[in-house]
Amino acid sequence: MSTQKPSAVTVRRLLAPHQAGPFTQFKPLPEALKEEAFAAVAEIFDAAGGKSLLKSSGDVYIKPNGIDSKPYCHTRPELVEAVIAYWKKAGANRIFLFENSTQSNFTRMVFAITGYSKICRRYGVKEVYLDEEKNISFTFKGKQAEEKEKDGYRRTSFDIPLFVADNLIEKADENLYISLPKLKTHSMAGVTLGVKNQWAFPQQNDRRPDHNYNLPHKLADVLGYIQPDFTLIEGIEATVCGHYPATAFAEECIKPFKVLIGSANVVAADMVGARLFGLTLDDVPHLKIAIERGYSKGVRSLDDVEIIGDISDFTEVYPYDLIQRFPEDVKILKGGERLCAEGCKNNPLTLLQVLTYDYQGKGGWTMIMGKGHAPAVIDAISGKALVMGRCAAAEVGDRLAKRLGKKNVYFSGHCNDLCATTNAMCHLMKVSPLKMAPQPLAQSVKVLTLAKLHGTKANIPFLLADIFKVV
Predict the structure, then answer these.
(1) pLDDT digits (tens, 9 = 90+) for 8-51
(2) pTM (2 decimals)?
(3) What is the pLDDT of residue 1?
(4) How far apart, in Å, do the first and last CA atoms of the chain sit?
(5) Handedness of CA 174, 264, 44, 262 (dihedral sign)
(6) Concatenated DSSP letters for 212-244?
(7) Judging by beta carbons within 10 Å of its beta carbon (0-12, 13-18, 19+), is residue 119 exposed, middle or buried?
(8) Nearest CA among 85, 78, 9 for reference residue 48
(9) For residue 219, what are the CA distances in angstroms to 140, 409, 446?
(10) How many whole angstroms separate alpha carbon 9 and alpha carbon 6?
(11) Residue 256, SS3?
């Protein structure tokens, strides 16, 4: 068990130089920095109790942030390896590395491209792709259904993998669960650290309907079922201006903080992570809700946190919203009555930036998002249009389809359906989804085939979406 107080958060600064050259080139860590990171990981775990953190089974379950293989949006493989190596040396019985990647992706592919799979094979670690696991139903408890409560949940239940339910909820007192998130801001949640790292537990279909103003409530709902035994935030690079920046923007969005943050209290760890960005609880609604619901082990503000390490030189306030740079030949119409940054606004705008600036996607179309559009503005749209989210679909979808023709109107109907959005934008912008997997085509097909054979429940874009319209 941890020998540190529930209010303790360790911040370990790394001193070795980072890479030379621009961050637009994602490179392995320099050897000196990697060695220092390995040593720092060991120091953080040793200070928290080391081997005594192991529970009766001797098993260790490690959850990285592996939402995607895109540079700087996932936990660095060097830190994944450092944590695995520590617990292997500490005498862990079995080690599991598990994840359920973001919508429009699947975990087996992310593990292959990031190098997580190679690390697991090297150390004898069991890879678990949660999108390929059987499920059990749980309830989102934070709000009632929208029929019973204003701004309530559209979906009140969610499927959670049996692997998680059995090993990390039912047998939480037997198994050591370590969360290994990446230090990132988030344009829809303020930050994405330890608490949001668990948004992988609902299967992808159950993340779509209330990925709106209700997102912070649902993040806290998941935390109510399960909390990590230890959270280690990897901040060798910190990502700002959202969590998934276009690589073309890396010099603006990637900050070499060279820091690791460790705590047995996931809420306290996240508060310190937010503090390094200059953000407060007012910027991170899901942390405020977690505190209000009693999930913070008595910590209610940063004043209650015992920070072990010096963070006094982190004085800048970093933006968590997107860089406001979009292609001039894509017209973006935003609803004046409701427009959720957590849903139909910032996810599609993020993808628009990536496809434009990283893959040279084409414009010449209109995107409509949110609720509250002037009919005259909608009637002035010509050419092709993408209708984002259920509010816009209900308000203007039929009107546009009747006037422009169904073949010219594309829909992404949930508050956040990244697969549908990717299919639509890849067709509109003539970008092949295959280009977004940086590995040989044959390897991508092999990994996809294996995922399908093992029953993946991930929503995967149509591989020929650039050629054929599917939404």
Answers:
(1) 999 999 999 999 899 999 999 999 999 999 999 999 999 999 99
(2) 0.96
(3) 64
(4) 51
(5) positive
(6) STTHHHHHHHHHHH---SEEEEEEEEEE-SSSS
(7) buried
(8) 9
(9) 9, 33, 34
(10) 8
(11) coil
The pLDDT score that the predictor gives to residue 72 is 96
**Pairs from 345-349 (Cβ < 8 Å, separation ≥ 24):** 345/369, 345/370, 345/388, 346/187, 346/188, 346/242, 346/321, 346/322, 347/188, 347/211, 347/416, 347/418, 347/421, 348/386, 348/388, 348/412, 348/421, 348/425, 349/322
Q: For tokens 């005498």, what's the residue? A: 91
Which amino acid, residue 436? M
Q: Which of 96, 99, 255, 81 is nearest to 183 (CA)?
A: 255
CA dist list (Å): 35 to 16, 20, 129: 9, 17, 29
Q: Are 272 and 9 in contact (CB under 8 A)?
A: yes
Q: What is the DSSP letter of 204?
A: G
Q: Which residues of the chain have pLDDT under 70?
A: 1
Q: What is the pLDDT of residue 189?
A: 96
Q: What is the Cα–Cα distance from 264 to 145, expressed in whole angstroms?
A: 33
3-state helix, strand, coil in the chain (%, to 5): 40, 20, 40
